[in-house]
């Protein structure tokens, strides 16, 4: 077993940091927000996940106070959009650094629709979207208490959009049919959910 401390890994053996390849796959945080003047913003985040279900909550972490994080905090709202395999190229295109105020969805030819309960829009082509209200945010600190350039935003899910084609006859969301795209290890690596394993939880 190879052991290393993150600040002192053997760069001959591991020239590429394996951290994100080890903690994988991860759902893509395709987050849409809206400015005060109504301009929309859409960007994918590598660090995203659900953090609770009573009530349902999700989080994303921004390396640097980027437009999405700042707009979510300013407006108090955001929408998460599921990235399926069919949306992979458009999602990737929205990761480009563009001037604040640029509408990424328009740039890549995506239709947006207004939220029902929040001001931020959703991606119409997404098989599922979660309307969220920001309930917590913090600048992350390291183990010594020093502030990092990473910002955590937690949102409570207040509204859920689901493509009816993704609902099975027994009322389940069909994850395999939705083909969610997930982040793998390195900047150009992704995975698609294509296998379901079911196990009964012990009593």
UniProtKB/TrEMBL annotation:
Superkingdom, natural source: Bacteria
Pfam family, one: Flavin_Reduct
Domain (Flavin reductase like): residue spans on this chain: 21-175
Example GO molecular function: FMN binding
SUPFAM superfamilies listed in its UniProt record: FMN-binding split barrel
Name of the protein in its database record: Flavin reductase (DIM6/NTAB) family NADH-FMN oxidoreductase RutF
Organism, scientific name: Nocardioides marinisabuli
